[in-house]
Amino acid sequence: MLKSFKTEISPTLEQKAKINKTIGTCRYVYNFYLTHNKELYDKGEKFMSGKSFSVWLNNEYLPNNPDKLWIKEVSSKSVKKSIEDGCAAFTKFFKHQSGYPNYKKKDKSDVKMYFVKNNPKDCACERHRINIPTLGWVKLKEKGYIPTTKDGWKIKSGTVSKKAGRYYVSALVEIPDNKITKNSSEGIGIDLGLKDLAIISNGKTFKNINKSGKVKKLEKQLRREQRCLSRKYENLKKGESTQKNIQKQKLKVQKLYHRIDNIRTDYINKTIAEIVKTKPSYITIEDLNVKGMMKNRHLSKTVAAQKFYEFRAKLQVKCNENGIELRVVDRWYPSSKICHCCGCIKKDLRLSDRIYRCSCGYVEDRDLNAALNLKDAMTYEVA
To answer: Which of 48, 156, 180, 212 has the maximal Cβ count within 10 Å?
Structure first.
């Protein structure tokens, strides 16, 4: 079984320069691959796969263009991985699974430095440091988080990324498959919402972290820094500001975004851990139409802040690790409109009705009623 461990690292100035150079080269090669295939298409020639492009780049293009030989100064594995990512993006586009691949923008797109274990000495890890090919030993800020190679753990591959001035390593480690099978016979249903993050059928409610004072304070600070950045761009046109000041202000905005994002992610991780800790036999959730919800301009910001997709993805990983069946109910299942007591459907239920009242005398909180119905749902798919 493979598991990913991501943590912050503290590289030296020389290592930072290597990471930045590798990420920049990978971004350039990825964009070059997209441009080259577009040119081939315009000429009516055949599409070039990632493997064919890699051979053409090394054997034909670089020897004839000496000014581009700096591409070979970084890790070849990282460059090949960026080409493979471009090929995968085209494959999804051809299969109508996504749109046309976009170009990677500097300091905006998530480009990573890929590394893989080739030699026994590569990818070694100790309690306080990790050995990354082409970089050497790099200090870990969180000691003891990544399993050490001395204890028999094997690191297969990984990536080094940069975000808001910070550097992170993500290591793919081979771990024994120890699933927990002694779970309770009872399952639970989870109703995700905007007012509260998650309402569980056992009565437990996880509040919306975005309504907390800490997040609101950071969002207020973010708005202030964004206004300051906007003014600096206006002053640049007048000659009253410099690019250096803009870069400093952009980093302040990025750090605030990153901090808010970390708070939300940490809350989701703790919520899922607490849910899985009850050891249910199954968990039922609803297949939310997040893409459709994002089209509502009044709710899109709130929907994005709740991170429904990330919640479901991480819940599925935890369920697989603990031997819990994750059931997904169809998005058209009327979980909120069904009476949990008599089973009749209340078609005139409005979004403003927060208390569910049935003609049979059943009265319950709207979201808790939905969670109970999801728990007892008979039509579902196992994720």
So the answer is: 48
pTM metric for this prediction: 0.84
* pLDDT, tens digit, 9 for 90 and up, residues 354-371: 888 888 888 888 889 899
Burial status of residue 347 (CB atoms within 10 A of its CB: 0-12, 13-18, 19 or more): exposed
pLDDT tens-digit readout, 243-273: 889 999 999 999 999 999 999 999 999 999 9
Collapsing DSSP to helix, strand or coil, 170 comes out as strand
Cα separations (Å) of 35 from 42, 90, 342?
11, 12, 61
**DSSP string computed for 179-228:** ------S--EEEEE-SSEEEEETTS-EEE-GGGSHHHHHHHHHHHHHHHH
pLDDT band at 231 (very low <50, low <70, confident <90, very high): very high
Residues contacting residue 130 through CB under 8 Å, at least 6 positions apart: 9, 123, 124, 137, 138, 140, 146, 155, 169, 171
Query: CB–CB of 38/165 below 8 Å?
Result: no
In the 8-state DSSP scheme, what is residue 46? P
pLDDT band at residue 109 under the 50/70/90 scheme = confident
Helices (H), the chain: 13-43, 50-56, 62-64, 76-94, 213-238, 243-276, 290-294, 300-306, 308-322, 366-375
CA-to-CA dists, residue 210 to 214, 240, 251, 261, angstroms: 8, 37, 23, 10
